[in-house]
Design a protein that fits this description.
Chain A: Keywords: Chemotaxis, Hydrolase. The structure holds 2 protein chains of 2 kinds. Chain A is α+β, with helices and mostly antiparallel strands. Helices cover 42% and strands 27% of the residues of chain A. Classes of the chains: A alpha+beta, B alpha+beta.
Chain lengths: 201, 161
Amino acid sequence: MKLSAMQLDALREVGNVGAGNSATALSQIINRKIDMTVPQVAIMPLGDVPDVVGGPDAMVAGVYLRVFGPAPSSILFLLPRESAFYLVDMLMGRESGYTKSLSTMDESALMEIGNILAGAYLNSLSHFTKLTLLPSIPALAMDMAGAILSVILIQLGQMGDHALVIETEFTTETEGVKGHFFLIPDPGSLDTIMAAIGVKG
Amino acid sequence: MSELIKVGMADYKTGKNPSSLISYGLGSCVGIAMYDAVSKIGGLAHIMLPDSTQARSAENPAKFADTALPLMLDEMLRMGASKSRITAKIAGGAQMFTFANATDIMRVGERNSEAVKNILKKIDVRMIAEDTGGNYGRTVELKLESGIYRIKTIDKGEKEL
């Protein structure tokens, strides 16, 4: 799998607008300013993907959604455990540092956040590509990053040894909330996206 | 020299006493530890998928149960382990996310564990312990001094096989 400089630029731009939409949505929900990094677009060996979020045994919360439509993909929103706790405290209007483990209500709240971020992202991706891309209902897990990522990597592993990862990091200005947003297109979906935005390899 | 040898996803490594082999953050993947208690030679494989014949590309044999295990066994035998003494312990094969309509791909953890057991039978290596299933991740470590297979989890404690 190889991408031309132009394809990388196009993906970065699409990712930038999508992530911008997501960051705005998140910022409105928690009423805090959110900074985001310019998306990293990379093709990396499957085994290296967990290193992006601090190694395979880093403790994270992950919201996972499948994307249906002409360009099937996976979306994963990963937050370090402490960030997930901060975030639910903000959402629930509790004092920061209150949450030490997630209740069912907290879990729903996090899944809803994942849902909104994914929706905002896919909206702009659909707008760019004119492809109808729909998210599944979200699923949540709180565990080791490697274990959570393996769900996506295994699906990709049937086709090859590398993953195309479009990744953005969100951070709030003051509180320690940090999150990684991944869009991982299924093999083949990349070509569909590229063709739709009119960029040839 | 005592050394901690890391085994990545879709990889396998072998070693000798007093080293240890470790693999972090297994989800639906399965970690297979093989050990010869006399020569104290062992191997740890971190497989992602059951079967290389069903996949479209098979560049990396360490990714699949059916190709990784015979290769690791061969390497152990070349290092001086004895086939008749080698036993296996396995861990992992969890289902990390639960969806209402669990598709086949979501059950890959279960299929991985099944496949590993079948391959072990096929290559005639006796499985003596397992810790598979559930919905949580595991970090596994094989101590080549003792053959103890230590399983660490976030909330479900630690155990030794």
